[in-house]
Every structure is written in structure tokens, then in C-alpha cells.
Hints:
The structure holds 2 protein chains of 2 kinds. Chain A is of the alpha/beta class. Chain A has helices at 17-34, 41-50, 65-74, 121-133, 154-165, 179-191, 194-199, 217-228, 249-270, 297-312, 331-346, 366-384, 395-398, 412-417, 434-439, 445-459, 467-483; strands at 36-38, 53-55, 60-62, 79-82, 88-92, 98-101, 107-110, 115-117, 140-141, 170-172, 203-207, 214-215, 233-237, 277-280, 318-320, 351-355, 357-358, 363-364. Helices cover 44% and strands 13% of the residues of chain A. Chain A starts with 16 loop residues before the first helix and ends in a 9-residue tail after the last helix. Chain B is an alpha/beta fold. Chain B is elongated.
Amino acid sequence: MANESNLKRPLVTLLSTEFIERIIEEAKDVLEKIGVWVENKEGLELLGNGGAQIDRGKEKAFIPRRLVEESLKSVPSSITLYDRNGNPHMNLEGNNSYFNPGTAATKVWDSDLNDIREPFTQDQINYVKLVDALDNIDQLSAAIVPTDVPKEIGGQYRLFLCLRYSTKSVFGGTFHKDGFQVIKDLLITIRGSEKALREKPLFITGACPSPPLKWSDLTGHDLIMAAKNWIPPVLISMPLTGSTAPITLGGSLVQHTAESLSGVVISQLASQGSPIIWGGSPTAFDMRYGTTPIGAIETMMIDVAYSEIGKYLGIPTEAFIGISDAKYPDYQAGMETGIGAIIGALGGINLITGAGMMNFETTQCLEKLVIDNEICGMARRLVKGITPRGERLAEDLFTAGLYEGKHFLLSPITMKWLREEFFYPGPVISREDEQAWRQKGATTSLERAKAEVKRILATHKPEPLDKDIDKELLRVMTRDAEKYGMSKLPLP
Amino acid sequence: MELLQSIKESIIAMDDQEKVMDLVKKALEGGILPEEILYDALTPGMDIVGQEYEAGIKFIPEMLMSAEALRSVMELLEPILAKSEGSKARKVVMGTVEGDIHDIGKQIVCMMLEGAGFEVHDLGVDVPATKFVEATKREKPDIIGMSAFLTTTGLRYPEVIEALQEAGIREKVKIMIGGAAANQKYAEAIGADGYGGSAGAAVKLAKSFMARQ
């Protein structure tokens, strides 16, 4: 019988409670004394009415700590997401960790070309079908921005393709103020009503403050619309150390906390009690190249640390981690992604956004997705920890005969636990012996990943949508495309 | 000239603006021509800083410090440089396109261009095509540099180029684009004169435009 007090969920923490509290206090000072810029009129109104001091000329709000503390009281500490069929499939709370692919890629890596190129509708469709089949990727991201449709519909079009070709819930976003309504229409088509959508959310969106300390008109709008519609927004504060945020990790954490707290306040003023996710995409700005390395160890440290702060505040967390800066699916890609996914999982981050992504946060790669799926499998197994099994842990040793020159392979206990106790990776991770490996063609992991992508796309059949719902989704999407001059969507 | 050497070394050593200014003022008082200061001290000094940065010896903030010092010295020298010299500053108008507010990359490019001796007019962020046209008519720059980071705002580049064409002034400038929303192929497709994938690349491109003239 499993003794619950022996069960330990492995966790890594970087901050003491005192340090967390110090960062939060300083962030509150920033909000009170320095304030945030809010270029969205409604956001500024909400803050003013909620008790913030407003400088209309500068479009600034000075948020008193009292307002921050009140807002934190009404934020839900748990969010359940449901799949397309309405079944609960993700509980964002505590130290539950789930994985989804890196989102909003403007490029893809093409294995035939052996290079990066711009993406098309078929790439997003292939990606959705692939993720639908991968066991260790829990959720879809509206990952790829197809270039064969008007840019204005990019946000909603990606979601449309996700809904058509997979049953997993979606992390998406919009690039255009008008996009939000179309997204809502698509989601309501699936759920049947606004009420049903609110009760069983299947979509979360991004709300990105601009560092330092600013909500633009578009992102302010995104945040407020999401809050009002109870579509959980993922706050994606993205301090770049030493360039758009203080250079020290502690300093950037204060900025992240201040920006995120301001987001919480706006969301709760827009709709009290609405769900929100404490996320982010900070990076340790590389002072040699002026780039934003998502694979840097300090990037990962900031991710874990800000998630600790989110947990302390009782809010579900998210981070862009488990991504590589490599421009080719090579050792660097494996290294940075592997380390990131493990660190993210050990950090107890609820939503780990990154699989498949490389070249900073710009390029999706199907082969890398398949490789990362196995990395995520390792991470999932790690956080399950070591479960005490049986009255006596080593029951076999006490059973006469088994250890006297015999082996454990035939023990009934071995039979009982052999699947559950272990993660069996493959085909990317090669476990066969060298001879067998040679017989199979002495392949590299990338070659095996390519073959696996082809196999999945040829054989996996995602659950089809109800015909009428599919028709309606298509109608909504086509109508939106027509607004921007496209009369027929480039669908297969 | 010892003073010229000191000025050059001061730039390389990332001395603060005051120190460099003092040396420059001393040099001017001593009868050294502003052109000599520019071409025999400041420019070679900044070239070395640029080389050190490319070689990974100096990091961006360090390089920008030298560029800042140089910029304030240029403010002092500009009015007294001989006008006939062709030392007329090479002018760049920079901006992040409409709908886009990303500008850290552009800010680094602006500072590096100033460090390389360009006169830079930064229009800021979320700059509509009309404002680019206005600024071009007003400042008569040699180069226009545009930045965009989002997929959607990358669409704006052709709008600006078209607006310049309609105003009849496209031929008068070189256009360079940068940022994550573009690449060389796109630059060629829309009729821009070049693409810079990094701040260093942008400065090289700007210099190459001037060399051809």
C-alpha cells in the first residue's frame, strides 16, 4: 500500500520565502511610485475607477498596493481546461506540469530542404495532426503562422486549423483587435453556447505587456477581452535583462512581478474572479550578439523563480522553456531543450510551452517536436517521483526461491509494475544494442525523428469533427478571410 | 599628435563623455582642426571599438558607451566642421513601423550608427508611412532604416516604400529594413535596398550605401 507521506514530488526552488516577499514588495513599490503605462483607454478607465491614480496625459496609472492585494484575493488558484469533446484534460494548479509546443512561429524547418523556410497552411495542418498523436504533449499551441492567408486572420486561422484536426485544447492569440470576436465565434461553434464555453474552456490566450511596464492598446485590449469572456489569459511579461529590464536576475524578477501584478489588477477589475495565468517569456539578453536566448541557463532560472512567485501568490503558472536557440535540429537543440524541459518540470511550472521550437522563439520543426515529445516523456516521469509500492518495497527479496540463483524477470511483482514504473522512449531515443542499431541502418536521432514524422502523418487519423460543426467553423473562417480579400481559404 | 592619440585611446577605453569632451576641447584650443579630430582620432577609435565588439572582446553596453561619448563630441564638432569638406554628416531616419512597438534593436542600431558618425533621427515606434514621408522631405536623409518585429507589422514595409514612391522621393534615399519580421529575400521582393539581421549588419549596410555614392 502506498504510504502517501513517502511520496515526494521532486521540486527545485531558487528563491527563499524572504526573497520572494522582497521581490513582491519592491514590485508593489514600482506600481505605486513609478506606475505603468496603459495605452488602452478602457484599461486606464478601469484602473482609475478601481482606485489607481491616473495621469491621463502620460497614459499612466499608479496602482496602490491595496488594489493589488484586493485583486490577488479574487484570482482563482486553479484552472481546468477541457478538450474539444468537453472532457477535462488539464488541471492547472499546484505543481501539476503540462507541456505544449512553442507558439507563434513565423518559420518552419523543412527536412526535405534541410533548412528554414516560411510556413503555409499545410504546415500548420501537419503540425496539428502530429501533436494530436503525441502522448507527452498535452495541449496544442496555435503554433505556426501560415503565410498563405491575409496576416489579419493569422491568429484565428491557426485556431480554426487546431480545432479541425485535433481534440486537444489550444493556447493561442490574436494579432489584430478584430480577431478576438472571430476566435470567440469559432469556440462557441464548438461548445454550443457562450455559457458552455465559459464552463468548459478549451482555449487560453496570450496577454503581453511591453517591457518595461507598459500595456499597449492591442495587448491591453486582449487582456480585457479575455477577462470579460472568461478566456484565461496567459500573462507573458518578457523582460530582457540589461536591455528592456534591469540586468540582474533579481531586478528583472521585480519587473516581471510588477508587470504581471498590473495584469492581474486589470483582469480582476474587468471581471472579478476571472481566471488568469502567471506566465512569461523573459530572456537573459546576450550582450555579445544582442539576441534573446531562450536556451540560456539564466533564462530558465528566471522562469523558475517567477513561477515560484506565482505559486506563492496562488496563481497557475506558465513559462516559455524547453526551447533552443539552435538554427538546426542538432546537439544544441537537444541540449537546450532537454535541460529546459527538465528544469521547467522540476520547477513545478503548470504549463511548459516550448516543444518543437528552435531558432529562439521563431521556428517550429516537426522532427524536433517528435524528439521533444520524448524529452517531455522523461520530464513527466521524473516529476512522478518514486512511489513506494507494496507493504514491503522489496517483496521479492523476502519470497523464498526468487533470489537463489533465479532472476526477477518472472516475478509477478515485476509483471505488475513493469509498464507503470518506467517510461519507455522511442523511436527517437535508441535503446537497442549496437548490433541491432547497425542492422537498422545505424541511424541518427534526426533520421529516426524524420521517419517517425512521416509514419505518424501517414497513419494517424485525428477524431473527425461533427459535420455540421465543421461546416459552421469553415463558414465563420471564410467570412473573416473575405473581409481581407480572400474568397477561398487555401485548404487541402 | 599626442592629444589626438589620447582622444582615440579615450574612446577605446570607454571613458565617460566628460573626459572625452575635455580632451577634445583641449585639442581645439590647441589649434587642432575639428576634421583632424574626427578623422584621425574619433573614427579610428570607433573602428577599433567596432572590431573589438565583432571579435567578442567588448560587449554591447561597452560598445554603446564609446558610441555615446562619440555622439556628444559630434554635437560639439558638427557646427564647426568645414562645410565644404563633404564632412556633412550622413543622415539616417529610423523608425519602427506602424502597429509595432518593439524598439530595443532599433535603439541599438541608432546608437551604433551615431558611433559610426551618422546623424540619426529616430522617429520612435508605431510610425505610420505618412510620418516616414514627412521626415524624409524635412530631413533629406541619405538612408531610411525601418524596424519591425511582428509578423503582421512586417506588412508595413511595402506601404512605406509605396508612399515614398508616390511622393516622388523614393529615388533620393536608400532603404534598409531589419528585425525579426524580415529577411534578405523579403527585402529584395519589396524593393528595399538591403536587410540587416543584426545591429552590426545594419551599420555595415549603411556604410556600404554611403561608399557607393
